[in-house]
Amino acid sequence: METDTLEENVPSKPDESSSPMIEAARLSKFYGIFAATRDVSFKVHQGEIVAFLGPNGAGKSTTMKMLTGYLAPSEGVAKIAGFNMAEDRIEASKTLGYLPENGPLYPEMTPFSSLNFFADARGMSKQRKSERIAAVIEQCDLKTVIRKPISKLSKGFRQRVGMAQALLHEPKVLILDEPTGGLDPNQIREVRQTIRNLGQDKTILLSTHILQEVEAMASRVILINEGRKVYDGNVAGLDPDKKGLDDAFARMTY
């Protein structure tokens, strides 16, 4: 009888083949009477690269912080790989890689020591740590700077270090907040290619206000304005009159 009770209380792993990998269900965040977001709902399924668009202050970063568990919603539910972020954040974090707009980098560390630190924090075995650090160094092309202090690195390389940290534990879901912000054209091209490669076997939600990112990487767009979702569909549907994404963006956000 006791055994049955214990087994009933153990949360079962969600079925990834049928469940969305990212789910926002009526997410709202209030600061007093101000609504940073209100009733934002969408789902992202396995293998999708979805661009999350909106003007500055639209609520993109707030929504992403709620999805990743960094911010508690005032209302609604956020799920990653079927795990409720309010109830199963630790389990969800094993599946999630998050790159904030200003990633948590320690400037006195080198990329290698930083990756080593985060691998230890995740409890990786010595062998797995060695394998994964080598893999993300290669994946994010950090070989030339791996022993240099992060404080001495360019913005582009710091962004790559942040990406390597997000990929270290082989997450199935990636949430990236302005991953090309502040980069030069060559660095932007490299990051775009990395994201396209990752999209072959991961689910990616990509926040941006740069419309070229949408055409370059995503097949679907979610657009929010003043804290509310105003569009969710394919890229072509955002611009049915073929006047350009700039025109479509302005029309939906003014």
Question: Nutshell version of this structure?
Answer:
The protein has ten helices and ten strands.
Plain-language structure description:
The protein has 254 residues and is an alpha/beta fold. The chain has 2 domains: 19-95 and 172-254, 3-Layer(aba) Sandwich (Rossmann fold); 103-170, no CATH class. It has 10 helices and 10 strands. The longest helix has 14 residues, at 126-139. The termini are far apart.
CATH class of the largest domain: Alpha Beta
Number of strands: 10
Q: What are the segments in which pLDDT stays under 50 over at least 5 consecutive residues?
A: 1-16
Radius of gyration: 19 Å
The named CATH superfamily of the largest domain: P-loop containing nucleotide triphosphate hydrolases
Order of helices and strands: HEEEHEEHEHHHEHEHEEHH
Strand count, sense and barrel status of the largest sheet are: 6 strands, mixed
Q: How many domains is the backbone divided into?
A: 2
CATH fold naming of the largest domain: Rossmann fold
Helix content: 25-40%
**CA-based shape:** globular
Q: Please state the structural category.
A: alpha/beta
